Structure formats: structure tokens, C-alpha cells
Amino acid sequence: MTSPAAPEVVPIGPDVPAPQVKSRKHLYFGLGGLSIGLVAGLLLAAGGAALGDAMASSNAIPAALEKCSVVDATGVDVLDNGKSLNLQTSGEESTGTDVAAVVCVLNELEAPESIFTKLESTRALDGTQSTEWSGYTASWTYHPDDGLNIIVETAAK
After folding, report:
1. Taking a C-beta distance cutoff of 8 angstroms, is the pair 157, 141 a contact?
2. Helix (H) or strand (E) holding 21
3. Could you tell me if 121 and 140 are in contact, meaning their C-beta atoms sit under 8 angstroms apart?
4. In the prediction, which pLDDT does 98 show?
5. CA pair distance 155, 157, nearest whole angstrom
6. Contact 57, 50 (CB under 8 A)
7. What pLDDT digit, counting tens, does each position of 39-51 carry?
8. Are 131 and 152 spatial neighbours (Cβ–Cβ below 8 Å)?
9. Cα–chain center distance at 140
10. Does the CA dihedral 94-105-82-155 come out positive or negative?
11. What average pLDDT does the segment 58-64 reach?
């Protein structure tokens, strides 16, 4: 019978170097840099999108009026350097633009269908009504004598 083999003994002393512990600093710096870069990229993208939206919406109202051929029409007034708009339709005692022009402009500004239902159902007794949609707010009144008066403004970002 043979005796079991003795475990190998590794001498520790001045001639045998101690095992080296690998530094993880590069890992922490890499993860930190990646995190900072990711956050900075997201902030720049959000800022760029907001700037793009602001620039697009600042030209949207004049572009809508141009497309609907109502730039100099009665009852159509551009306000705040193209950032807002007043549309006044004709009433029994006033002149203004026709309802088709209002519908065209609101469609060009991508107003939701629900706003048209709200406009149609507004009565003189209802006072000032308002709504908002992507990038815009609108407030309006209606009276048979004065017609529909709607103010469209670019929404504050």
C-alpha cells in the first residue's frame, strides 16, 4: 500500500513574491466616466430637442397662415412676433374671417379633433373657454353678435 501524497507546500519567504492584488481603480474611473458621459449626452439631447421645438413652433403660426392663404385676411392677427395668433370670425354685428380659415389654421397647427367639438359647442353664456395641445394653448369666446374669437399661443416650455 502506498501512502497518500503529501500536499505540495509553497514556501513563503523572501525569495517568493507575494501574490499581487489587482487594482480596480481603472474600473471605477471607467464606470464614472461612462456615467458622466451618459448624463451629459441626455442633457444635451433634451436641450437640443427643446431648442428645436421652440424654433419650429416660432415659425409654425406664420407658416400655417401662409398655407391657408390668410396672411393679411380680415380677422387674422399675428401677435408676439409670430408666437401667438388672434382669429376673429364674422358675427351678426362684426366682420372677420370665415370659419373655414379658422379650421384650416388649426389643422395646420395640428390641433386635435376634440378642439373643433369644443369650439362648436361653446355658447355665449359659457364665457372664455380654453384648451391645450402639443406646443399650443388656445382660449376663445363666442357670441352670435361678435362671432368666434380665438387666441392661439405657443405653449411656454
Report:
1. no
2. none
3. no
4. 93
5. 6
6. no
7. 767 777 666 655 5
8. no
9. 23
10. positive
11. 90
Query: What is the residue-wise DSSP string for 40-81?
Result: HHHHHHHHHHHHHHHHHHHHHHHHHHHHTT-TT-TTEEEEGG
**Spatial CB neighbours of 99, under 8 Å, sequence gap ≥ 6:** 89, 148
CA torsion 58-60-65-71 (nearest 10°) is 20
Starting from the edge strand earliest in sequence, which strands make up the sheet with 147-154, in order?
76-79, 84-88, 147-154, 136-143, 129-133
pTM: 0.63
What percentage of the chain exceeds 70 in pLDDT? 68
Q: What is the pLDDT of residue 48?
A: 60
Judged against a pLDDT cut of 80, whether residue 86 lies above it is answered with yes
**Cα 38 from Cα 32, distance rounded (Å):** 10
- Bridge-based pairing state of the strands 84-88 and 129-133: unpaired
CA nearest neighbour of 147 among 111, 93, 86, 103: 93
Q: How many CA atoms lie within 13 A of 118 on its CB side?
A: 17
Burial annotation 15-29 (CB, 10 A radius, 16+ → b, else e) = eeeeeeeeeeeeeee
Query: How many residues does the structure list for the chain?
Result: 157
Residue 156 has pLDDT above 70, yes or no: no
